[in-house]
Design goal:
The structure is a homohexamer. With about 260 residues, the first copy, chain A, is of the alpha/beta class. The first copy, chain A, is about 35% helix and about 25% strand.
């Protein structure tokens, strides 16, 4: 089923072209080839977006690429809070796409924050005055203010949730985290989320945007596609678009759609 | 499968046309293009309707649009209780559709109540004499009486439920909330509800009406449709109708139907 | 798949025609157009039937119509115990079908019992000597005896169940409620039940009869049908029959069947 | 898919014809038209069989018919333990098929035991020296010995299970009940079981036999069929056979099969 | 889909034919017609195999037949631990296939151990010094050593599991049971397991082999098939093969396959 | 659906051929025929990969084969920690594929660590100073350092998880295990995981790689295929490739794909 382009998206896009300066102020370009066309020209400022997908769907690459592009091409600093992988592994991951994280770190345009639970446990007791959740947030906030970051990624929410036995309590913490991220008016934030079940989750309705990286079995292999499930203040594409992980990172084809169901 | 218009709905609609004044008294026009034809000319007065749908289905836009239309076109004041988004974000959301919330606020015809849990937690202890639920309700009731509101929206029930560990207790609170809303005989109330699972929920059978905003995957993208699942005292459409989110808000096509299953 | 009429049902029906007087003693006519032909000429006296269906399936209309028909056409008094809607709302619901409840109430042929949980909570403590469940039952029994009712409706079981944290305890209460209803040898009782999940429920095997009001999505809209799942001492139809909600209430077509699965 | 008769069943049946006397000793004829041909000539003596099906599937009729046939045609006494319906209701149920229970009761060939939980609760405390489960079993055993019953029906297991909060404890009680029924070497026992979920249940693997009364939706209505899922020491049919509830009770067509899946 | 015979299985089989003596040492012939060809010539010595299937799938017949064949045809003694049926019932079950258990028992080549929970509960308290699980194992070990058994069957695991409220504890007991069975280097053990749900179970990954007896509905009746899901040190068939329960027990057709899904 | 080879994988592979020395440093060849082509030339050093599959899918053979190949063909020592099977059984398993574990053990190039829970329970109390989990890890670490192992296999995670009642606690232990394995910079680690349910599991998102051994029913039998679900720093195949268990172990056909869904 080939759908025509929604004329609203089109007109919005044309406005974007002609009144670029005004709108660019309100939008942050992702730098991921093909993505910004799907979301009305970029992420809304101050928005918090969930990046959701299964294992191997490319969530970490997506988030890294957006921060590195911001730093390299738009001069916008980024803070990448890693709760799973060690920073040196992320540097290796990036180098396999030809991205040089270290030079950006040295230039003060990218910060990899090592916020793995094991780091927290190694703290001396006098340094460990608050909970893991608060420690994570305090470190992010400090670094964002220090380097005047415009892009934030937290990878992943699942590690945070693993520290709450009580889902009810976790939900309230996530609400307050999102409110806190909204306090940085110039920033765009990505929350990486590993989809473990097929059910909709509470996280999806708390964030301003939800981007799903589909990675699903079809006949003889796996198919990759991106879907903008929701994005506030944005006439976004409602189709599934093919996504490729190439030697140079993620590339989206905004003009094509694929059938997932 | 093309269905003929149910003659009952038709006759009801004709009566509505001819005896408009009498019936208009009993109905509140939504102002959402195409909707009122599906629900016998408007929402029944004093009714409480659940607006249900998944993330990105347009529940907040739907509710905002109905209150703004009421204020702008019918001179009916509205109270929008927001439990998730900050008021300034809602104003931005609205302006992306060309709606000017601030001018309506100044005119006393629309009130955005900031009832986010974080506001409650910031209260001084002497002000926080009752539970979150009671605080929410007390604020809504006060504002409805103050501006003589005819339209109420609570966005969303899920935040209220997140404050109850015990589903049994929550259910009884919802019953009493609906009874309390029924005490405003001139009002129509919308309860926004984020569908997280596919199961029917207790909320659906307690309210007078249930409107479902479908937003479901079909082949290459997402399809939007509206369904009036139930509405008391109303011969409503039993079909699925296409819904579009345009540059000017939601628009429904009451003469067309779409296949969802 | 068009099925022939089961000859047993047919012969039963013929007997009913010819030996009407004798059999009519054992049967209570529903008064819902088309229904009695499906259940061997009417509900068995002393039977308790579950009226089951999802939101918007017409359970309340069904039950109201049966009590109003009994009062208007057969001179049989009815008690409608409402646990969700306020009596004034039910009167409005009824008037939208052209039914005048108030005149029947004045004539002592219909009683609307307001047994909402909020009424129970408003009782003074000296009046509230027993549990909600007992209070509901005591009020029903008293009114049934007072007006010599032949038809009883309890709308809905779900509100009763909401007052039991423990499903085990609820099940035993329902057993005893059904036994108590059996003590009225001349009555027919309807228990309204909102189907929330698709699973079979304990209620279905405790009652003498189960009538399901199907209201299910098909292609472009919703389809209505009635099914007599079980009815003791009755050769009932085993097909799905179309059900319409018209300007004058429910109408069933006993000669047609529809495919649901 | 038409299947040929399994030659083993056939030869078994032929042996049954020729060596009838010897084998009849080991088999108890059900008396339900068409059933005995499916189970190698009748139920094995001392066997305990689960009669399983959903609401309206005919479990109670099946069990009543087998006990009444035994009493009327084979002179074998039966004990029907009813845990749901009152005895007078069962008598009415039976009379709608032309069966006269009362005359069999007077002749001492059929006993209806009223073992509803409410009867147990009405006992004086000095009579209520043991649990509900023990009381049920004690009454059954006493009556079986008194009238030298050869057929026992317990309707239904679900009521027994409703008295155990702990499934683990219930399972052990059922094991011991089945062992106790095995102590009557000349008897055949039927345990009526209302299938509430589609999952296999523990009861199915503890009994010697499992008979399923299918009552499932197909296109425009419900289809009835019987399946012998298992029966120890018996070459039984492995097909689904049509079952009809006629004016004279259940009738099975052992020569036809129907497609259920 | 007809599959060619895996050449590896074939060559293995040919080796088996030519170097029979050497390999026979490592394999224990099941004696069930058609089975040994599917499992590389027989069960590996010292292996523990789960025999899994639903009610009526033939698990008890399978296990009995393997022990009786071993005793009659290969002179290998067997211990059958029965936790559900009484020994006299098993003897009757066997005689319906023409198998004479008693003569084998007298010859000391087959032992039926009555390990039903009721036997355990009847023990005097001084004899009941350990748990049910330990008592079961102690009896099996003693008998295996006494008659120098080469074949062991435990029917069924489900009864053992019913004695553990805690699944975690049960799992550890099963691990230790399997280790203990491995201590008999010349034996092959069968653990009968009644599949209640469709989910894979912990038992399947702890045993050396898993054989599934499929008994599933197809169109008008039930279909029987055997599947060797896993067997260590064995190139086994990976197909579904038809299984018949004949007058002489189970018979498998190793050259044919059937479609189950 | 035949897919063309992803040009990125191809170019990567070509680079691998021409600049072998440099890259080989970063990759560890599996030695499983056909696998290395699917994962960009081998496993990344320091990576931890989950080997996931159902019973009988070949997980143990896969892991054994990779360690034995490493020892035999590349001179890289391996540590195989077995938590289910006894070492002597593994030696037998291996010999059925013609692999001689004992000679590799003697040469100090392969160590089978017997870490079954029963071994832990046999320890004297003074030796059992820490938990089972710590004991397992301490033994592995000691042996890896002793023989300078480059390949580690832990078979299986499920046994570790069986020692945690609390899933939350288990998850944190697994995180720390993976971090600890990352401390061996020259090693590749395999974590064997028995898939019991179809749901995605927490383990899948914590490891650097996930390889799924599919073993699923198709029509008349079972189908084997391998899928590289994820592998960090690697352009891996996204297709399902046929896997065969031959007389000489696992063999993968990287040029063919099969349809699984």
């Amino acid at each position: 089923m080939k759908r025509l382009i929604n004329p609203c998206v089109l007109s919005f896009y044309l406005i974007f072209i002609s009144h670029g300066d005004m709108l660019r102020e309100e939008r942050i370009l992702s730098g991921i080839p093909g993505l910004d066309e799907l979301i009305g020209g970029g992420f809304p400022k101050r928005s918090v977006t969930l990046i959701s997908g299964g294992p191997g769907s490319g969530k970490t690459i997506f988030s890294l690429q957006m921060l590195i592009s911001g730093a390299e091409r738009f001069g916008e600093a980024g803070v990448y809070a890693t709760l799973i992988e060690a920073p040196e592994e992320l540097r290796l991951d990036a180098s396999s796409f030809g991205w040089n994280i270290e030079s950006l770190e040295k230039a003060g345009r990218l910060a990899l924050l090592d916020l793995r639970p094991s780091r927290f446990l190694e703290l001396k007791s006098e340094e460990r005055t608050d909970s893991f959740f608060s420690w994570v947030w305090r470190n992010i906030r400090f670094k964002v203010e220090e380097i005047k970051a415009k892009r934030i990624a937290i990878d992943s929410l699942n590690v945070l949730s693993a520290h709450f036995r009580d889902e009810h309590q976790f939900r309230q913490k996530i609400m307050s985290l999102i409110e806190a991220l909204h306090e940085f008016p110039e920033c765009v934030s990505l929350l990486v989320f590993e989809q473990i079940t097929l059910e909709r989750t509470i996280e999806e309705f708390l964030t301003d945007g939800v981007i799903i990286l589909h990675y699903i079995p079809v006949k003889n292999g796996m198919l990759r596609a991106i879907q903008i499930l929701k994005m506030r203040r944005t006439r976004h594409s409602e189709n599934f678009h093919p996504l490729h992980i190439t030697c140079e990172g993620i590339r989206i084809n905004p003009k094509e759609t694929v059938a997932l169901f």
